[in-house]
What we know:
Blueprint: E1 12-15, H1 19-30, E2 35-39, E3 52-55, H2 60-65, E4 68-71, H3 82-93, E5 99-105, E6 116-117, H4 128-144, E7 150-156, E8 158-160, H5 166-172, E9 177-179, E10 187-189, H6 190-202, E11 212-216, H7 224-235, E12 242-244, H8 245-250, H9 254-260, E13 265-266, H10 269-275, H11 284-299
Parallel strand pairs: 1-2, 1-4, 2-3, 4-5, 5-7, 6-13, 7-11, 8-10, 9-12
Helix pairs in contact: 1-6, 3-4, 7-11
Amino acid sequence: MPEMTQPILKSMVVLGLGYAGQAVARAALAAGFPVAATRRAPRPGEAPAGITLLPFAEAGPAIAAATHLVITAGPDAAGEDPVLATHREALRAATGLRWAGYLSTTGVYGDRGGGWVDEATPPAPLQERTRRRLRAEQGWAAALAGTGAALDLFRTAGIYGPGRSVLDDLRSGQARRVDKPGHLFSRIHRDDIAAAVIAAALNPPPPGGPPRVLHLADDEPSPSAIVTEEAARLLRIAPPPLVPFAEAHAAMSPMARSFWAENRRVANAATKAALSLAWRYPSYREGLRGILAEEACQHGTDPA
Length: 304
């Protein structure tokens, strides 16, 4: 009689149940992971059904028992990674940990004058917030070195999706169509983030090696104004007037100015090959249509 083998138990903790974290948690649950997730001060009913919601400060036991971790929380104002600062002992106790995924930013590449960066491009952050992100990446690599757990660094482009897109800005009257010729942005739909994270968790790099860099960016870096025009077309409204960049810049927040200060295109071929994955929303066009279709499904309305 053949020897019976026990199934390998697995569990995932999502550290930071924000916009992307919720999508990752739902996708992990659908993939068969028992899932716990954290918030600083959770409220009843805040977590998707089937997901255990924990106060961040009390997540140590769950981290110590996890086989998979996803970290969406960014560094604090002092530059410290909150998970490493609060739960380092729990990480040391996580002897069953096999994989961790850290959601970082493509901002670690700095300004490339509109040129391409790929997964092998050395980081060169120009701003303090992106320098903090790079230090956090390095902190996670150091924390997991020698543990046998694999680490994926998800360098993520601008995140959009239902409830967080130019469609909402147009409806609220806050959308602006800024004219800066040659300036491109990369972006990624929330649901493609979730799909990529779960694909990586199920197909990790070899343990003990260097972190794997993965790019969460769609196939078509595009000017912001073009995306706004397409969203307006889908909503059957006139796009806002085109505003010269110099005029728009004067009214921008410091965060918005920091985004417009850098221009790069983010390649993703190595990421999709490593994960055997194609984006559900390969460009903003499919992404915006998908958002409208989801809204129509929820509200029983015409998606157009």
